[in-house]
Structure formats: structure tokens, C-alpha cells
Design goal:
Elements lengths: L2 H7 L4 H8 L2 H10 L5 H10 L3 H17 L3 H14 L10 H25 L5
Helix pairs in contact: 1-7, 4-5, 5-6, 6-7
């Protein structure tokens, strides 16, 4: 699996991130580091606890990382959640679909990156 194929699996924008980070090695480095990013888990814990200020900070961080790495399909629901939670807002009614969309895109992104890591790095990664 190539980096481009990995990005295609999670509907990322490989060309955009390549224009910014320039080297495939750099893209790979930061993409693999994303597996260690706690932002999504932090968001889930804070949101479930009703700590919407911390949930906002966590989803805002995930939004930024997703945007910087060209994870477009993950960025979009994170961006919408960020705007809902800004200034102490909450997710209610039809907007609860955003929580599921974010989870689905996060899982899809993580699984594609793990698949890439297993294919390219094997046991050494």
C-alpha cells in the first residue's frame, strides 16, 4: 500500500498535504504519529462527562490535526462539532448525527493508517 492509497481509503487529500509537507517521509511520519494522538478519546470522555469546554478543546485539536494532515473526511465533522461546541454550546437534536459521523470517520482513518503501517512497517513499526 502506498501513502496515496492510504489517503484514498480514508478520503484524505494527499496532494494538498504533499504540497505542504513536501516529502513522503514527512507525511508518513506525521500520519503514523496520529495513531498516538489522544484528541478523539479526550473528546469522547469530556463530552460524556458533560465537560463541554474540554470537549471543545479536544475536538478543536482533532480538527486542526486533521486539517494539517489532509484528513478531509475527518476534518469536516470535527469542524462542524467545533462550531456547535464553541462558546459552551452542546450537540442536540439532528446534530447528534455529527457525533456518529465523527466516530465513523475517525475509525475509518485509524484503520487505514494501521493497515498502511502493517503493510509498510510490519513488525518493525
Amino acid at each position: 500500500m502506498t501513502l496515496r492509497e492510504c489517503y484514498q481509503e480514508f478520503s484524505g487529500d494527499y496532494d494538498e498535504v504533499q504540497n505542504r509537507l513536501l516529502k513522503p517521509e514527512r507525511i508518513e511520519k506525521y500520519m503514523l504519529k496520529f495513531l498516538e494522538d489522544p484528541s478523539y478519546e479526550d473528546f469522547c470522555k469530556a463530552y460524556e462527562a458533560g465537560d463541554y469546554e474540554e470537549a471543545f478543546r479536544s475536538i478543536h485539536m482533532l480538527k486542526g490535526v486533521s486539517q494539517n494532515l489532509g484528513f478531509q473526511a475527518l476534518f469536516l465533522p470535527c469542524n462542524a462539532l467545533t462550531e456547535l461546541l464553541r462558546n459552551g454550546g452542546t450537540v442536540a437534536g439532528d446534530d447528534t448525527k455529527l457525533l456518529q459521523d465523527t466516530e465513523n470517520m475517525y475509525r475509518m482513518t485509524i484503520e487505514a493508517i494501521k493497515k498502511y503501517k502493517d503493510a509498510v512497517c510490519g513488525d518493525a513499526g
